[in-house]
Design goal:
Blueprint (H helix, E strand, L loop, with lengths): L1 H20 L2 H8 L8 E8 L3 E9 L2 E12 L8 E8 L4 E8 L4 E12 H7 L7 E15 L2 E16 L6 E12 L5 E9 L2 E9 L4 E10 L5 H9 L9 E8 L2
Antiparallel strand pairs: 1-2, 2-3, 3-4, 4-5, 5-6, 6-7, 7-8, 8-9, 9-10, 10-11, 11-12, 12-13
Length: about 250
Amino acid sequence: MKRRYLIALGIIVFVLALLLKAPASVIYGWTQSKTATPAVTLYGLQGTLSEGQASGVFINAHPAMRDLHWRLKPWWLLLAHARFHIASDNAQDLLDGEVSLSPLGTATFGKLRASMAVKSLLGIIGQPYLPIGGQINLDLDSLQLKNGLPTQALGQVIVHDAAWTLAQPQAALGDFRADISTDGDNNILVKIASVSGALNVKGDARLATDQSYELHLQYQPNASAEAMVRNLLSSSGAADAQGWHHFDKRGKLQ
């Protein structure tokens, strides 16, 4: 019995060694479905599963990151998880963190720090035509995805220099902050507030375990807001007695 165990262990170690040294492009090809379009697509793969890079990352067919590097943490394989340190430091996109992939289709990100253009994020979430510019910074202690959809999250998102890009020149809106947490029922909760700029904003969002969501926002112009911003708010509907405009939306992530 002991001899059989040692033989089986030797075979497993041998197979893992082959996989770790195999070209990343070959392993990536094995994982791709021939019938369904993947949510995440990698281009320009170089290196191996242990350490390598991709020249481009697309999410939902929209560019998300360039020059992505990874390095495997091999000891996590003993727990049936593939854990990587991931990073990108090109001029437009910044990323640093860890991701753990399980056989059950769950991806867990830890200590994730990222910065990208708001336009890039809008493309990723399927809203590429919204005329909003700016830079977004993510500081997430944890983020869990199941089949590409979020199930748990904890951290903070800050939008800097948001602007309405249909105006010429662009209408500056300000800086905004969202604090993200997960409650005891695994609902993801987001508290939204303005930090500075032309708009006062407050609100919240909730993503339930069935991927249904609710978004509630209130916003009004500051005294220093440009006429363009005031006209933009007026076109979104009448304000209440306290001068707040309201935006409410419900739906379900696909």
